[in-house]
């Protein structure tokens, strides 16, 4: 059984449905105006202390594409560990790395990651929900949600752990791991470009604290 993020499906849907995307543009959205994809981080918000016992925090994204659904490469997903993995109604794989089967172009990094490749580990395949929230003449909106259930994976129990969320969408399939190519101690869009990836979105960064209490 995968150790990451046990959750109750009904509870997850209830939490996700409470979030209102029109209220959440309080993070650093990046300086990539004119890109065909626009990411808004709904949760966490900049400066927030979030979660309990270094888990139970939410990463929630609204991602607007200037194109139809087929152009996004996204398909609906509702998944998680154990019984939820690859079970209906929208089965999918679940684990570290890129979300090859449902959102292959998405990159999600947390600087406080202690598992896998650490700060450069793509976490997008840990997302529980990918869904289509809007389609109209302006494009297609995808809503992606992840509730963290494992302690000590992105913070420490009993501690307040500073973390930075970084999100990007690239052309094609995202890497499982992003490498600090310029060796400056930060992993960002410059490293993606040096790895040969074309970034097609803004690249928001959100600084928050993983609450370990």
Count of DSSP helices? Answer: 3
How much is the average pLDDT? 87
CA-based gyration radius: 16 Å
Shape: globular
The figure for the number of domains is 1
Strand order of the largest sheet: 1-3-7-6-4
How much of the sequence lies in strands comes to 25-35%
Structural class: mainly beta
- How far apart the termini lie comes to 26 Å
Question: Total number of β-strand segments?
Answer: 9
The poorly predicted ranges are 1-27
N-to-C order of helices and strands:
HEEEHEEEEEHE
Indicate the multimeric state: single chain
Q: What is the share of helical residues? A: under 10%
Instruction: Profile the largest sheet.
Output: 5 strands, antiparallel
Quick tags:
213 residues, single chain, globular, 5-stranded antiparallel β-sheet, 3 helices, disordered N terminus, 9 strands, mainly beta, 4-stranded mixed β-sheet
Note down, in words, how this protein is organized.
The chain has helices at 9-18, 69-72, 189-194, and strands at residues 37-43, 49-50, 58-65, 77-78, 106-110, 129-136, 139-147, 160-169, 205-211. Strand 6 and strand 7 form a beta hairpin. It is mainly β. The chain has one domain. Strands 1-3-7-6-4 form a five-stranded antiparallel beta sheet. A four-stranded mixed beta sheet has the order 2-9-8-5, with no helix packed on it. The chain is globular. The chain contains three helices and nine strands.
């Amino acid at each position: 059984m995968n150790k990451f993020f046990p959750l109750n499906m009904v509870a997850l849907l209830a939490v996700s449905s409470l979030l209102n995307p029109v209220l959440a543009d309080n993070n650093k959205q990046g300086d990539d105006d004119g890109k065909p994809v626009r990411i808004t981080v709904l949760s966490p918000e900049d400066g927030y202390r979030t979660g309990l016992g270094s888990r139970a925090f939410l990463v929630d994204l609204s991602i607007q594409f200037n194109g139809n659904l087929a152009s996004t490469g996204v398909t609906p997903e509702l998944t998680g560990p154990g019984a939820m993995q690859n079970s209906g109604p929208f089965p999918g794989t679940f684990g570290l790395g890129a979300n090859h089967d449902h959102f292959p172009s998405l990159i999600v990094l947390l600087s406080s990651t202690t598992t896998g490749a650490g700060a450069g580990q793509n976490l997008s395949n840990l997302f529980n929900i990918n869904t289509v929230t809007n389609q109209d003449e302006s494009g297609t909106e995808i809503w992606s949600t992840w509730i963290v259930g494992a302690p000590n994976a992105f913070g420490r129990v009993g501690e307040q752990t500073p973390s930075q969320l970084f999100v990007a969408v690239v052309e094609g399939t995202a890497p499982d791991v992003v490498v600090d190519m310029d060796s400056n101690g930060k992993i960002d869009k410059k490293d993606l470009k040096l790895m040969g990836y074309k970034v097609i979105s803004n690249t928001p960064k959100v600084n928050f604290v993983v609450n370990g209490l």
